[in-house]
Design goal:
2 helices, about 60 residues, single chain
Length: about 60
């Protein structure tokens, strides 16, 4: 019975770790997309034509 227990633990623990990593990566990605969309919303309409603007999106568009 001990080899069955060792086999079960050696398969279950890595599977749980992989599932935890995938869940965390999905939530982190959703959080980053939420932050990006929130910044875009708070920045308002695009104003690339103003060369003095220092906001993240204007700097990014000017390249």
């Amino acid at each position: 019975m001990t080899w069955q227990l060792i086999l079960a633990v050696s398969v279950t623990v890595p599977a749980l770790l992989i599932a935890l990593f995938l869940a965390l990566s999905i939530f982190y990605r959703r959080f980053r997309v939420y932050q990006y969309n929130r910044q875009r919303y708070l920045a308002g309409p695009r104003h690339i034509e103003h060369p003095a603007c220092k906001c993240h999106f204007c700097v990014w568009e000017r390249g």
